[in-house]
Amino acid sequence: MSRMDNLRQEKILILDFGGQYKQLIGRRVREEHVFCEIKPCTTSLETIKAGQYAGLILTGGPDSVYKEDALQADEGILSLGLPILGICYGAQWIAYHTGGTVDKAGVPEYGKTVTHFAVDSPLFHSMPADSVVWMSHGDQILALGDGFASIAHSDHCPVAAFGHADRAIYGMQFHPEVEHTEYGRELLHNFLYEICHVRGEWTMNAFVDATVAHLKETLAGKKALCAFSGGVDSSVAALLVHKAIGQNLTCVFVDHGMLRKDEADTVERVFKHEFGLNLIRVDASERFLKLLEGVTDPEQKRKIIGEQFIRVFEEEAAKIGAVDVLVQGTIYPDVIESGVGGAVIKSHHNVGGLPKNVRFDSLVEPLRDLFKDEVRAVGTELGIAEDLVWRQPFPGPGLAVRILGEITRERIRIVQDADAIWREEIKNAGLHRSIGQYFAVLTNLATVGVMGDHRTYDYVLGLRAVTTNDFMTAEWARVPYDVLDRASNRIVNEVDGVSRVVYDITGKPPATIEWE
Ligand code: XMP
After folding, report:
1. pLDDT tens-digit profile of 344-372?
2. How far is the CA of 344 from the centre of ligand 1 (A)?
3. CB distance 441 to ligand 1 below 6 Å
4. Secondary element (H or E) of residue 12
5. How would you classify the pairing of strands 224-227 and 249-255?
6. Is the pLDDT of residue 477 over 70?
């Protein structure tokens, strides 16, 4: 067995019943140093058995278990002898399929709820008898099957948690994975360590060692090529491969001219000169801008940039000749199958898919198992500076989708300068870690302003900042007025071409994060 397999040997399976928090549960388990996988609840019993999991977690979901078309897992999972933890719908599903009763709650519970715990259960090891949990349920467990006992209750919920100690099967009506549950981390820790008896060997340090050793073995004597965007994922993936095969990895960095201010230079300096990557920067901005001349439709912009990106990459690859492997920065959220519907939701966001005219034998995706925060931790482990490793996500088409209307060098300059000020102010206010994404948008609307004694007629610039867990939904960030004030003042004074600044106070849905 390779060191890589070894590291993943101890793992938890999260069965997804369509709950919005599945990725958060996954991250929490990983934070406890245990590898986990997320699969649809319909995964076959054979697959689950073959996975040799240390335990199962059943997620919440929007259904009612007693409905005819409710999402189901194979009941056989309850007899595998594996520890199981059901959360919300997952708990109701267990209760229902072990002889209990579930029905509409007399009083549905939503939000923070004081709950009382039977602290002699191993699930509540080292926890106080009373604490606040996050409830979100309209159904309720009314009775439990043989051998199951209620081990927590709240004012309106007699079975807030239950367990069958001999079978190591537990359920909880509330959500331990969300921050609002005071002892949520302890609960998950207890399930993993007190009930599944894991050792907790999944650390980013171990991941780097095992991955580099594995890549050294599998890529010995091979030539690799990487489409390097300079973003966190592709740079961490490239650095891991670089650590394994050094100069046999060539990175092609296509600069389309619509990156954030100074970003292309920083990326080149850091990765080529400081880390020593064999990096080719291709300044293709002229070519991209020419093709985008007069184009105002966002989808058209995306299409042109996506296709052109691949063309430029292919041309560079042709100069290098055939390679054995192509390195990609795919991360786990890109590959998780959804339990309901099965679609990978982010596909339209990928810049341009795989190049068709580059010859390679196989694909290497060293980050395929990692969540974004784990990728950042690996980046830090590899020595990438905090500022770079904590950069927010940036769309493949870049500033093209943040410039409404036509893209010109002048308009790129305006949005770059305003964006740089906005980012600086957010950082100075210490908000850069808590806000998921924040950027400037240049509108194609001009309004009248007054500077000194002069009338101006310049663009309206939009500022956007959102908090989000998964970028599928988002709230507009409550940035303090004084931060908005400073940013607005600076932008109007320092950036030529802007006469007015507005702040976007729309959530997603109904708006999207980007304006185009
Ligand atoms: P939306 O605007 O769809 O954005 O709410 C959700 C997340 O996806 C990013 N995004 C893109 N990323 N190519 C990308 O690589 C795209 O065309 C694209 N459009 C949006 C956006 O920045 C946010 O993080």
Report:
1. 333 344 444 567 778 888 999 999 999 99
2. 14
3. no
4. strand 11-16
5. parallel
6. yes
